[in-house]
């Protein structure tokens, strides 16, 4: 009786009560990447996840040690600035994921915040801004929010996706400032993120460079709830 319908992952049973810090540590295991972008100098962005995957600055993005939403941030010129997460391919295949980041931009057109994957249909994963709103583009498919974010103020942006039963892009949820977006446009396709490209900030394969500031980048290998996203936003 009372059969469960859905996905179950990483089941653990302990013979003692865990402390709050221990539970918090378990939750952090899902965090694949955390770039606070709080440096003042240098060409590397430290990763505070347990994987310790530093980002390598490409060209000349500028540290903004006191001008971020949370402490510092990194400013991109929209021409050739980027950050490459050397050796990290992002969340690939049909694995569940959450992307979280603060952004400030005034650019119109298309710009990528974070991306990875390849150019096969459904194989790209690019979270960015297009037509003034948050977008996820996966090659031959895309989904768009509705809140204007290129107004020169800081916005918290989050995207979650899990395959459900059909693996379609339409299972994605987009959030701006902790509020789930109304989807303004959808071109649906099966998501199967490739492994060709290293994860990057600020572009996809040398195109659609981001112009503005990026702060506190996080990538998880599970879907965060809206409450969790709001908690991250308010940290």
How would you portray this structure in words?
This protein has 235 residues and is mainly beta. The protein is 7% helix and 37% strand. The protein is globular and about 60 Å long. The strands form two sheets. Strands 2-3-6-16-8-9-10-11-15 form a nine-stranded antiparallel beta sheet, with no helix packed on it. The longest helix is centred in the first third of the chain and has 9 residues, at 20-28. The protein contains two helices and 17 strands.
Tally of helical runs: 2
What are the secondary-structure elements, in order, as H or E?
A: HEEEEEEEEEEEEEEEEEH
Estimate the strand proportion.
35-45%
**Overall radius of gyration:** 17 Å
Helix content: under 10%
Low-confidence stretches: none
Question: Taking strands numbered 1, 2, ... along the chain, how are they ordered across the largest sheet?
Answer: 2-3-6-16-8-9-10-11-15
Distance between the termini: 41 Å
Beta-strand segment tally: 17
What is the mean pLDDT? 95
Summing up helix and strand content along with how strands pair, one would put the structural category as mainly beta
Which sheet architecture does the biggest sheet show? 9 strands, antiparallel
What best-fitting shape do the alpha-carbon axes yield?
globular
